Amino acid sequence: MPISAMFIGGALLCYTGAIWSERLMKRGLLPPMFTAMLVGFGCDLVGTALMATMVVSRNTHRSPHHLSIHGTFGVIALVIMFAHVLWAAKARRDERYARRFSRYSLGAWCLWMSAFLLGIPKFL
For residues 112 and 81, is the Cβ–Cβ distance under 8 A? Predict the structure, then answer.
């Protein structure tokens, strides 16, 4: 298994755990959940960078800026995940941000899962 897949698997565990524990516990975004989101984002960032490096090294005939559907979803999901982490940081300190955080979290997680699921066939 490529190390990039291990990082993405770590992102899956951390990000999913943070999103669903916050949603199911209904006690707000607790510090361990925020930490798990940060770790999940870090794992996703490293895993995505490693995958991009693999793609560029394998596809010398393509432009390094060429993205597949999985790659496009992955980049969008990474940007959304970054925005989500920033929102989480604000939601921990400001009730106005916290009120809508849970609803946005589910949408961000669904988009991230779409990118994750689109990438599974590449590793089978």
Answer: yes
Question: What DSSP state is assigned to residue 86?
Answer: H
Q: How far apart are CA 31 and CA 34, in angstroms?
A: 5
Contact 81, 47 (CB under 8 A): no
Residues with Cβ within 8 Å of 115's Cβ and at least 6 positions away in sequence, in order, are 70, 73, 74, 76, 77
Three-class SS of residue 124?
coil
- On whether the pTM is more than 0.90, the answer is no
The whole domain housing 104 covers: 3-123
CA distances from 51 to 71, 101, 103 (A): 9, 30, 30
pLDDT tops 80 at residue 78: yes
Structure tokens, 62: 């393509």
DSSP structure class, residue 64: T
Place of tokens 């989480």: 88
Radius of gyration (C-alpha) of the chain in whole angstroms:
15
Split into its structural domains, the chain has a count of 1
